[in-house]
Amino acid sequence: MDLHILNYRLRVTSINTAGLSRYTHALIKLVFLSNQTRCKFFSLTETPENYTVVLDEEGFKELPESEHLQVESDIWLPLNVLCDRNASSSSDTVGVTKIATSVIIPLAEQHVSVFMLSTYQTDYILVREKDLPVVIHTLEQEFAIYREVGGETFRVYSEDTDVEEDRKEAVKMKVHPVLSPDNRFSVMSLDPATLPTIATILIDVLFYSNCSAEVENYASLGLDYIKFFSFSLIDGYISIVMDTETQRRFPRELLFTSSSGELWRMVRIGGQPLGFDECGIVAQISQRLAEANISAYYISTFSFDHALVPEEDISYVIRMLEKPLTEL
Amino acid sequence: MSGSKPDILWSPHHVDRYVICDSELSLYRIESVGTTLLAINSDTPYMKCVAWYPKPEPECLLAVGQANGRVVLTSLGQSHNSKCKDLMGKEFVPKHARQCNTLAWNPVESNWLAAGLDKHRADFSVLIWDISSKFTLETSVTAEKIRLSAGDTDSNLVVTKPLYELGQNDACLSLCWLPRDQKLLLAGMHRNLAIFDLRNTSQKMFVNTKAIQGVTVDPHFHDRVASFFEGQVAIWDLRKFEKPVLTLTEQPKPLTKVAWCPTRTGLLATLTRDSNVIRLYDMQHTPTPIGDETEPTIIERSVQPCENYLASFAWHPSSQNRMVVVTPNRSMVDFTVFERISFAWSSTTSLMWACGRHLYECTEEAGVSSTEKDISTKMRDRALSRYGHDTEQVWKNHLLAGGDDSQLKSLWYTLHYILYMYVLQKPLGNKHPIVYSGIKNIVKSGSGSTENARCWNGSELKADVIRYHNEERCLALQLCGWIKKGPEIHVEPFLQCLEQEGEWERAAAIALFNLDIRRSIEILHKGATSEKGDLNLSVVAMALSGYTDEKNSLWREMCSTLRLQLKNPYLSVMFAFLTSERGSYDAVLYEGRVAVRDRVAFACMFLSDSQLPRYIDKLTIEMKDAGNLEGILLTGLTKDGVDLMESYVDRTGDVQTASFCMLKGSTGEVVKDPRVQCWIENYRNLLDAWRFWHKRAEFDIHRSKLDPSSKPLAQVFVSCNFCGKSISYSCSAMPHQGRGFSQYGVTGSPTKSKVTSCPGCRKPLPRCALCLMNMGTPISSCPGTAKSDEKVDLSKDKKLAEFNNWFTWCHNCRHGGHAGHMLSWFRDHTECPVSACNCKCMQLDTTGSLTPSDTAQ
User: Fold this and answer.
1) B70: contact with A, CB 8 A cutoff
2) Which part of the chain is the Cytosolic arginine sensor for mTORC1 subunit 1/2 ACT-like domain (chain A) (predicted)?
C-alpha cells in the first residue's frame, strides 16, 4: 500500500458563531473564488458550537485575526492512503474503517494524535508536522511512503532509527460519551463548474442557517436534530456533507452522490470539547467499526469528532460504542 | 469543453467529417473550400468528453461522458436504422456520481467502452462498459435502495453493472487502449500512469508521475506514448516504462491538447491555453549513440493558423499536413502545416531538398551557355584542365581557365610579370623582393622623379605634357607589361604583341600615350585594313591626324564632346588625353572600362610624385572593395592582396584561383595567413568531394613545391609486434622521416638492402598472407606468386609495381600482405586470405568501393 504525505501545511482553526460576520468575506472568497487565492486545501464544517476551518497556509493568510478566531498552534500535514496497488482488493467497507487497522491504530499506539477528514473522494489523516518522524517510522513497515518535493514525488524513509520505541506504554482509552442525532446525512460532490449555480443557496445555508425550524420539526416528532454541514474544496474537488433537510434546498441534478442514494447517520463523540492532544479517539471508534465491517466517514472538528455510518447500522454502532472498552 | 471550450473530433471512417462538441454536438463536412454543417445534437447536457465509435457501423455513434459520470450513447445525422436505435440513449451509470473525464472505445472489441472518472473514496475510477449488455434491472434487494428520481431516465436503458472496474480510490484523467493488445488499457491516474491488463485485473503496471493527462499512443510506433502535465509533455516508451524517454521543453501556460500526427511518423502537435500557436515537435529517427541519457533529436517549430486564441485542433486523418482548428467562439480554420524543408548543395552544382515525403533534385542543365556557369562547375572544369599548374608560363593559366575571364587574365599576367621580374632581380639577393609587394608599395618607395617635357615622336608639334621618370616607375611599367626591361621606355615590342592579338585600339592608345602619334595612326590604319578590321578605325585615324595644340580650336571642342560617343574606351581615352589640360587626366584615369594595368601605367608616366600615390591608393581601395583581381597588380601578394582576394572569394566563391594565386606568393606570411590556409583547405576538400583524388594529390605536390612548410609530417607509424617500437625507427635520423614507408616499400632498386626485420629487436616483420614472405620483401623477387599472368601485369606498369610492393592490412582482422597480392585476391574473393578468418576485409573499406572521378585524366 502507498501512503502519500501531501504537499500542504495545514492550520486547524475555529470561528465562533458570534464572530462569523467578520469572516464571511474571507470564507466566500475561499469557497467561490478559489482561483483568486492560492489556497488548494480548504474545509469548512459547521457545527452548533462553531465553524471549523482547516486550510493550507495560503488560505490561512486570508483569515483576519480576531478574538473570534481560535487557531491550533501546530502545523498539520495531511496523509492519504492509496490502497490501490492491487486493484482487485475491494472490500465493501470503505473509508476510515479500511485504514483503521493499518494507520490509525498504530499511530494511536505511538501516541500520535490524528485529525480525520473524510470527503466524497477520499480520507485525509492529518498529523502534526512535528510527529512526522514518528509517523514515518511507525508506518513504513506497512506502507511505501511518498512525499512530494519540488513537484516530484519521492519515496521517503525514516531518517533516524532511534525513534523512541518506549512510547509504547498502554494506551489509556478514555470512553467518551456519544450522541446520535436523528437527522440523516448524505455525502455529495459537485462539478466545480456548476458551483456558481448553487452559490446563493450555499451562502444561505452556510451563513444564514437558522435551524430552529428543523429543530422544532424534529422535536415535534420526538427526535434529536443537530446542525451539521461540511464543505471542502481540496485539489479542485468539492465534497459536501449535509442532512436531507438541507439537501432539499439544492437542485437535485447538480449534486453527485451514489446511485443507490445511501444515507448516513451521525455519531458525535465527546461530551466536552476533545482538544487536540488526546490520541486514540479515532482509533477506538474505527477499530470497532472495522471489526464489525461497517463503513464510515469520519470528520474531526475543533471540538468534537463525528462519525457517519450507514443508517441501517446506526443502532448496532450505538450499542457497540456504549459497551465498555474492556469488552474489546 | 463543459459548454465553453469546443473540441474537434474527427470521424474514424469518413475523412471528410468531424464533430465539434461544446455544449452541443455539431457534425460538419469538410470540403475543398469551407465546411458544411450537417447536423446538430443537443440532447446531452453537462458534456465532459466525447468518443466516436471506432467501427464503420453504426456510422455516427458517439459516447458522451457527463459531469455526473454517466455515459450516454447518442448519434448525429443518422437516419434511425434499427441497429443504431437500440443503442441510442443508452446510459451507463456509475455507483457514485462524479465527473467523467475521459472515454475510450476499444478499437478491437468495439462494444467495450472505457470511462475514466474522478476520484471517489469507495469506488473505482476506470469503468469498462459493454454497450451490448442487456438492460439488467437491479435485483429486488438493491432496488429497494435505489432512490433514483422518478422519470429521471428511462430505467430500461440504464446499465449500472460495468464489465470491469479498475483503479479503486483513485482518479482517472485520461485513457487509451494500447494497440499492442486489445486488453491493455493505459490510464492516467491521479499520480501515476497505469497499464491495466484485463486478462489479469489484479495486476497493473504503473509508474509514478505527474504527467498523466491526455495519454495518447503514437499511431506509427505503438510503444511510444505522450502524456502531459501543465506545460510539460512527457514521451514514454512502454518497453522502458520507468521514466519518460524524453520531456519536451516546458511551456509557460498549461497544455490543453496533445496529438500525434496520423500521417507522419513522430510528429506531435501541442496546444496550450490562451494561445494562437500550435507547437510541432518532430522526433527524428536518427540513430542516437548508445547510452540511456541521450535524447533523440527533436525539431521544434510552431504554426499560427489564425490571430485568435485556439480552443482545440485536429489533424486531418488522411491528407498530409492538413489541420483544422477551432476557436472558442466556434470559428473554424482549415489550414496547411507547411513542411520543414531541408536542402543541401552537392559538391557539384546540383541542389537537393526534402519536403515531406518528397525528395527534389535540381541540377544545372548541361550545355546551357546563355547563363553563366556556376563557379563550382567552372572550378571543376578548370581543375580538369590543370588550371594553375602551369608554372613555366604562368600567364597561360588564364587560358587553362577558359580564357574568357578578363580578371583572371589580368591576374595571371600580373603573376607572370611578378615572377619574371623576380627572376631578373634575384641576383640582387633581395630577401623580400619588392616586386611581390605591388605597384602601390613600389611607387611609394620611390625617390623623386625626373620630369621632362617631351615632344611628339615623328611630329613637329610640341607636346604640352610632362612625363615623369624614375627607377620605380620604370619597374611599375614593367609590371604593367608595357615594357620588358628598364630603364629605357621602349614599348615597341609590346605594341607589336598587341597588334598580333588584334588589340588595335589598345595598341593605338598606348602608342599615343608614348607620344608617338604617327605610330598610333599607323596602328589604327593597320587595324582598319586587317582581315576582320573595323573600317571606322581609319576614320578615327583621320580624326587623330588632325590633332592641333591650339587651345581653342574647333578640333579640340569637337573631340572632347564627340569622344563620349565612341564605344571603345581606348579610342575614347585617346581623345581625352589629347584634349585634356596639362596635368589633369581624370578622363583617362577614371575610365573604368580601360584595363587597370593600362591606367596604372599611364598614371606612372604622367602623374606627379604627389598625384601618383593618391591615385594608386584610391584605385587600390576601389579594387579591394570590388574584389577585382586586376587590383592584384597594385596590391601584389601582400596582406593587402589577401584582403582583395578575400572580397573576391566572398563575391565569387572561387577558392581555386585564390589558392593557386596565393601559393605563388613567395613570402611566408601571405601563405600562412589563416584565410589563405582556409581557401587551400577548402579547395582540397572540394577536390576530395568531387573524388578528384589524383588532382588533389597533384595540388598537394604543387603546393609543397611552392610552400615547403605545407609538407605533412608522417602521421602513421608501424610498430613492431614484439618490441613495440616504430619500424621506421632506424631511419628516423634520415631527412625524409615522412617517407619511412618507402624504405620498406622497396623503392625500386633491388640492390638496396632489404629490411625484413625490426630494426629495434631484429625480430622478423609480419608475413604477407599470400606469398608468406616477410614484409619488406619486394613482390617481384617473390617466387611464390600464384599466377604467371599477374607477373606480366606487374611488369607492364612499373609505377603500379611499386605500389604492389607496399604492405597493407585489414584494420579489422589485422591480416594483410603486399598490396598487389591483396588487390588481386580480393578481385575474386570477399573473405580474408587467411584460412579460418572470415573477415570481409574489402567490404569494410567504404572508400575502397568509390572510384575517383578523375581517373580518365
Assistant:
1) no
2) 176-259
- Closest CB to B120 among A88, A121, A262: A121
User: Is the CB of B98 less than 8 angstroms away from the CB of A122?
Assistant: no
Reported pTM: 0.64
Rounded CA gap, B22 and B330, in Å?
Answer: 9
pLDDT at site B79:
64
Q: How many CB pairs under 8 A join A and B?
A: 101
Residue B204, chain A, CB below 8 Å: the answer is yes
- Does the beta carbon of B140 lie under 8 angstroms from any beta carbon of chain A? no
> How far does the CA of residue B116 sit from the closest CA of chain A (Å)?
15
- The rounded distance, in Å, linking the Cα atoms of A320 and A244 is 26
For CA atoms A19, A25, A31, A37, give the dihedral sign.
Answer: negative
Residue B82, phi-psi category: left (phi > 0), alpha (psi -120 to 50), beta (remainder) = alpha
Q: Order of strands across the sheet with B164-168?
A: B100-105, B112-117, B124-130, B164-168
For residue B290, what pLDDT is reported?
A: 45
Take residue B295 and report the three cell numbers written for it: 535524447
Please tell me the least confidently modeled range out of B133-142, B223-232, B600-609: B133-142
A313 in reach of chain B (CB within 8 A) = no
Q: B43-208, superfamily in CATH?
A: YVTN repeat-like/Quinoprotein amine dehydrogenase (2.130.10.10)
Chain B residues touching A121 at Cβ < 8 A: 98, 118-121, 171
pLDDT(B3) > 60 = no
Q: Compute the nearest-CA separation of A310 from chain B (Å).
A: 12
- Partners of B817 in beta bridges: B808
* Beta-carbon separation of B148 and A259 below 8 A: yes
Cα–Cα distance between A186 and A195 in angstroms, integer?
A: 18
Please, what is the average pLDDT of chain B? 81
* Strand segments (E) across B304-380: 312-315, 322-326, 332-336, 341-345, 351-355, 358-362
Closest alpha carbon to B559 in B568, B571, B567, B569? B571
| Interface predicted TM-score of the whole assembly (ipTM), two decimals | 0.83
DSSP state letters, A188-241: EEE-GGGGGGGHHHHHHHHHS--THHHHHHHHHTT------EEEEEETTEEEEE
Q: Which residues are within 8 A (CB) of B549 and not within 5 positions of it... i.e. 6 or more apart?
A: B461, B462, B463, B464
Strand, helix or coil for residue B791: helix
Residues of B within 8 A of A97 (CB-CB) are none
B503 grid coordinates: 588589340
Does the beta carbon of B101 lie under 8 angstroms from any beta carbon of chain A? no
Chain B contact for A80 (CB, 8 A cutoff): no
Residue A315, phi-psi category: left (phi > 0), alpha (psi -120 to 50), beta (remainder):
alpha
Residue with cell 473554424: B332
Residue A119: half-sphere exposure toward Cβ, Cα within 13 Å: 28
Q: Within an 8 Å CB–CB cutoff, is residue A144 touching chain B?
A: no
Q: Chain A contacts of B97, Cβ < 8 Å?
A: 189, 255-259
Report whether pLDDT(B851) > 80.
Answer: no
Q: Where are the domains of chain B?
A: 43-208, 449-608, 731-844
* Sign of the torsion angle spanned by Cα atoms A252, A256, A261, A265: negative
Which grid coordinates are listed for A241? Answer: 456533507
Sign of CA dihedral B516, B518, B522, B525: positive
Q: Cell for A236?
A: 479542485
